[in-house]
Amino acid sequence: MRAKFVNNILRGVIPYDVATKTRDKPLTANQIREIFTRHVKDLDNNVLGWNELKAAFSELGASYPDFRVDRALVFADPNGDGLIASDYEMDELVCYAWLDGVEEIEWCFD
C-alpha cells in the first residue's frame, strides 16, 4: 500500500503540505528531493544523517527543524539506524516532508 502512496506523491497527485504554502509556488516532490540531495555529505554512500536532515529542513523553512528531523526519522527510517540510506527511505522522507509529517492518510493507501 505504501508503494502506491509514494508513487502518488512522486507523480504529484497528492497536494502540497502546510510547510510549502509559505512559498510563492508550492514545491514539487522532485524539488524537495533535490534539497535533501544537496545536503548529502557522504557522497560515497549517499547517506543523510541527523545534521544533514536538520540543514535540509531549515532550508525547507521548517519552524522547528529538530522536531521535524526526529519525526522524519520515525516515519522514513524503518530500520532505525538514524540514517536515510536507501531509495526507499528517501522516498519516504520526501513523502514526510511534502505532507508535513502526516503519517496516515487513508485515501492514499487504498
In short:
Helix content is 50%, strand content 0%. The chain is built from 5 helices and no strands.
Describe the structure.
This protein has helices at residues 2-11, 29-38, 50-60, 65-76, 87-98. It is an all-alpha fold and 110 residues long. It has one domain: Recoverin, domain 1 (Orthogonal Bundle), CATH 1.10.238. Helix 1 (2-11) packs across helix 5 (87-98), helix 2 (29-38) packs across helix 3 (50-60) and helix 3 packs across helix 4.
Strand content: under 5%
Structure annotation, total helices: 5
* SSE string, helices as H and strands as E: HHHHH
| CATH architectural arrangement | Orthogonal Bundle
How many discrete domains?
1
Main sheet?
A: none
Terminal CA distance reads: 7 Å
- The low-pLDDT segments are 13-22, 101-110
Helix content: 40-55%
Global outline: globular
The CATH class assignment is Mainly Alpha
Which structural category fits the helices and strands?
mainly alpha
Key descriptive features of the protein:
single chain; mainly alpha; Recoverin, domain 1; globular
